[in-house]
Amino acid sequence: MISEEEARKKILETVRSLPSRRLSLSQALGCFAAEDYFARLPLPGFDNSAMDGYAVVASSCARGKRLRVTGEQPAGRDKQLHVSPGEAVRIFTGAPMPQSADAIVMQEDVTRDGDEIVINTGVTAGEFIRRRGCDLSEGQRILAKGERIRAATIALLASQGIDDLTVGGEVNAAILSTGDELVKPGEKPDPGQIYESNSALLRGLVHRCGAAVNLVEHCRDERGSLSKAIKRGMKNHILVITGGVSVGEHDLVKDALRDLGAQIDIWRVAIKPGKPFLFGRMQQRPSPQSSQRSARSRSREADTMAPGKGAVASSDCCFIFGLPGNPVSAFVTFLQFVRPAILKMMGAINLDLQQLPARLTVDLTNQGDRAHYIRGKLDHGRFTPVGRQESHALFGLSQSNALLRLDLGQSLKADQIVAVQIWD
Ligand code: AMP
Ligand code: MG
After folding, report:
1. pTM of the predicted model, to two decimals?
2. Which tens digit of pLDDT belongs to each residue from 188-200?
3. Ligand 1: does its nearest atom lie under 6 Å from the Cβ of 172?
4. CB burial class (10 A; 0-12, 13-18, 19+) of residue 269?
């Protein structure tokens, strides 16, 4: 049995980033930038009005003062107007500032009287003007290689006139659940059977990483069908198997993988829940479909990556994650081992779950020989364990939003500040 840290290190040394690809902006949400992006334009691009109102020369304004309205400047067309002291130009939000104007008076602060306005407020130079470049300077980095592309990132790129970009590769995943005792939701369980829920869990988790789920299958604990299902799953970049990785007579996954020629790098990790976790890989001859895909990827790679530092071969290797069947074990091992691997393959820099400080509400001790992940609720900065801390206890998991890692032998006291991992 190896430590959680060793397991994670081994996994992250083994998986590689997939070749980058070019996507339209609208498709890039949730992907990771494959290169740095810099501002081509300052933001705002020109001095403009922050309000509907009047452009004025501040020194010629005072409460009760009358100004002559000499023109109108809408947004979208620069009429190159000029304002002299004692004059005002009607102006709208986003419209370019007239020359010599140094303030905007909000329309709510004036009384319009034919061709004139009466100012009902004091006016200070610079008021309600959005200055060129005050938000973003030309040449400033707007997106770093490996950073997640979020809705606001897309908006920023769009504001630069960018309509496509280079992102990390797409990870295709297969999910295989195993176990004679399991039936699909919608079917009728016989006495002793239970509903299969891990594939729904894993599908959601894989999606949340930004990877594509290509195949979801269930398989009985029977060697022949397991081998066939594994073979189908191995056509993807990753295969996530649940159940059947422990030490019982019905735990056939490890042997089935070995028979198929897979290399098993890790089996059993000092983590609770999740001890029987398995990680391996299968180098495969590319199928016609995948060789087409890799040819495409390779040409994209040639387009987008510097020679020699390309992400290689990952597209022809399947990484296999065997997660224990207990739902909480599957959840914890997914977050600690599968998630960072997927993110690395997608080109992410930050592979860690977000950590937040929290005040612990109870005493906790780990007397076991494995790092223990406590499921709990982070609420207003306080962390409280929820539900039964057992690996089958799905309800407690469903009520939690954070994990607290207790190291071997670690004792924590109520009111202590701890770092918790959040996934929601
Ligand atoms: P295993 O790892 O196959 O020994 O399974 C451990 C426990 O998890 C058993 O109680 C199984 O019934 C349960 N289990 C395994 N796979 C699933 C699944 N896909 N959905 C729900 N429970 C499961
Ligand atoms: Mg089983």
Report:
1. 0.90
2. 999 999 999 999 9
3. no
4. buried
